[in-house]
Amino acid sequence: METTQSQITVSGNIISELSEKIPNNIIALNELIKNSYDAGSPWVKIILDSEKKNLTIKDSGTGMDTDDVNKLFHISSSEKEYGHEIEINGHKRLIQGSKGLGFLSVFKFGRKVKWKTTKREVLEFSVDFNELIKEYNVSDYPLVINHFQKEDDEAAGTEISVEVDEYNIGNLKEYLSDKVNLTKILNSFISQKNQKYDDIIPDPNFIIKLVIDGNEYATNTQIDLALQHKKNQFLRVKFSTVKNRINYFYKNQLVYSEDFNSQNEEYLLSLDIQTYILESYGKKKINELFYNPISLELTPLLYVNNNLFNNYSIFDTAVMKPIKTSLVLSQMIGYVSVVSSDPRISFNSDRTQFSQNSLTDDITNSIKELNKKIQTTGSKIKNELNGKTVFLKTKQIDEAQIIDGFDAMTLVRPDVLLKDFIKWKINNGKVEYTLFDRNFSVEIIKKQKKERNIEKRIYLGKIDESFRSEVSKLDKNVSRKIFYGTVETDKIDLSKSGQWIIKDEMEDEIVTTTINIIEPDPPQIKVKISDVKLHHEYKYDDLFSVINSFGEEDKGVKLEIICDELDVNNQKSRGLITFDSIREVKLKANLVDKKTGLQHEIEAYFRVIDPSKEIKSTVHRQNFIKMPVSQALNLPIGIKAFVTELNELALNDKFSYTFVSSVRTLVELLVIDILNNRGILKEENLSSNYELVVKDYDYFVQLITDNKDKQTINSLIKSIGSRNERESFLAFLNLSTHGSNRIISKSEVMNKTREIGVLLEYLNALNS
Questions:
Q1: Could you tell me if 746 and 659 are in contact, meaning their C-beta atoms sit under 8 angstroms apart?
Q2: What was the pLDDT predicted at 743?
Q3: Model confidence at 147: pLDDT above 80
Q4: Fewest CB within 10 A of the end CB: N or C in the chain?
Q5: What is the CATH code of the structural domain delimited by 200-386?
Q6: Which carries the bigger pLDDT value, residue 37 or residue 751?
């Protein structure tokens, strides 16, 4: 068997295609800056001269020798491992390049490039990109390297010079004229100040200098989060997976700390953020480095292996808006850093997104959850500091609870995040709390003593020894105040009428004794009845009730009845009186209080009636109309006679229509008499007049003195006051036996006795 070998040939076209993996000038510029960073240079200087159409990149790194140049042009081959830490030129750096495509970046700016590099000797070489890509086999391209002896004082480093075309000059100048973009190029590298990796600053050991047509700019190593618009600063937040603790600082004090666990050891995540509560135009006082280049809103910057990652969606300041707006804390700046040497860390061509895999998904989710946690907790702290959070369990506390060892923090709600920074003191009847600039308090309520009130009413001249002793006993209390009316005095004088108030304050009780010493009133005579029966013997007590000067009934008084009429038999010695004529009689009554000597005299009028003229009951059967509570003594004689005859008529079934008309006539007579008596203006029809009387029943009830009678009348009024009963009786009044399409039957009228009974009692009461 015969074997042969074939050589693999790489056309120059592949170089052109590989260069397309660098999508724009800014990515290319960043790649050139990273070459200087990897070379251990403390600085890199980029000079753009539009007049000469030249771009120069200089550094003072380790430089290159022949082997390094060969490695540079070994396309897609690199000994570098991205993210690994190395020490070079005395600087610790995280390797940035690993793809072997770094030298292609220069060809984004121009086709002709020259290199001058110094290490152990000085090497100079150049490449014409147009000629390179024409090669049938790129390895045949003649790369001529000129070697020169290094001067003793000549420093190591590399200088790249590119002939730039008009388009790229204009494109670069336009991009870098925006300060938001410029500051991000100049501050595209960071470093950690401590081993906790949570104090992040622009890298002071790698200065990026940019000269554009003579105007020079450089990395601002003085950008300090602590100094960015201090007036509106709120929380400083720091985190690192070294400790997995989120620390919140307020006014340079650690005010709160909480766990945030990230279990993946393939990367180190750290964060240093300053949050704000900005006033109007406050953003203008913050460095443009922290502006989102698209929205121009404030944003923290994301760095991967210490190099700026142009992504503003992974750490999204608006992440809480769709969840809960009250938990949004979007005004923030600072740095978010991811450090990893895992080979799965890779990016899309314009370095704005991670290439998706399990590691980059975990990094993205961790940053998102960390962001949400910070905004949620930060918003709660903000609410506590601005007074929106209620700190206290109560607004008041009993004085008895303020004892030795009292801890006012027990009144603070346990879910308050900043409770460890609350200070308190007791002052002016309050527990006063302070949380930084916020003040709040709990009112101390003095122990409430039980209050008891005693009222005494006594008559002057009738104060017995037991009461005097009681008052004397009160005098022995230690804390006592005595008032005569509203005037405070030393002691009580029981011989002086008026209101005396004794206020005794004891350990658990305040007793207020009000003593009203009253001048004796004249005795009082009241008439018990106004109608008396003919030839009936009455005791004085039957006609009059008497009260002495001290409000006592029938005690210590003398009642004298004076009457000179011949038909009145007044037996003064026996206290008896008889009336022998039917008429109205006037009596004089004089009452003397035997103790005070005060007297009262009245003139009383009595109507003498003949009991035989009362409404008589029918024989053998119950009356159709009867008085519910009284004996109709005060009804007009004509009404009483009408009712008596109507009861007789009710028993005779022959007189149905006459009976119905008579009942309605009786109602009309009663209603008109009542309205006349009360002085109420009458309406044109009976039903309206009856309604006026019904509305006046409250006055009727007030006239009744006997509680039992009042209860009976109230029950009757209530029973006829329902809607059905009222409408039924009004229908009866409107439908008389004449002038109507319907004639009311006798049986219907027999059910109207309650209404008639109430009308009779009202008229009887008005005439009493």
A1: yes
A2: 57
A3: yes
A4: N
A5: 3.30.230
A6: 37
Residue labelled with tokens 């200070």? 423
Measured distance CA(681)–CA(77) in Å, rounded: 121
Rounded Cα distance between 515 and 484, Å, is: 10
Q: Which tokens hold the place of 153?
A: 């004082």
DSSP 704-759: ---HHHHHHHHHHHHHT-SHHHHHHHHHHHHS-SSSSSSPPPHHHHTT-HHHHHHH
Contact 274, 330 (CB under 8 A): no
Q: How far lies 59's CA from each of 30, 73, 208, 707, in Å?
A: 14, 19, 10, 117
Nearest of 231, 182, 191, 178 to residue 335 by alpha carbon: 191
Cβ partners under 8 Å of residue 153, min gap 6? none
Q: CA 219 to CA 202: how far, in whole Å?
A: 8
Q: What is the pLDDT of residues 457-504, one digit of tens each?
A: 888 877 777 777 777 665 555 688 889 988 898 888 888 888 988 888
Q: Quickly state the pLDDT bin for 9 (edges 50, 70, 90).
A: low
Phi-psi group of 288: left, alpha or beta (phi > 0 → left; psi -120 to 50 → alpha; rest → beta):
alpha
**pLDDT for residue 194:** 63
pTM of the model: 0.60
Q: Which CATH class is domain 450-518?
A: mainly beta
Q: Considering the domain 524-611 in this protein, what is its CATH number?
A: 2.60.40.1080
The reply to whether 450-518 and 524-611 are identical in fold is yes
Q: Is 313 helix (H, G, I), strand (E, B) or coil?
A: coil
Q: Poorest-confidence range of 115-124, 210-219, 258-267, 460-469?
A: 460-469
Domain 13-177: state its class: alpha beta
Residue 293 has pLDDT above 50, yes or no: yes
DSSP 299: -
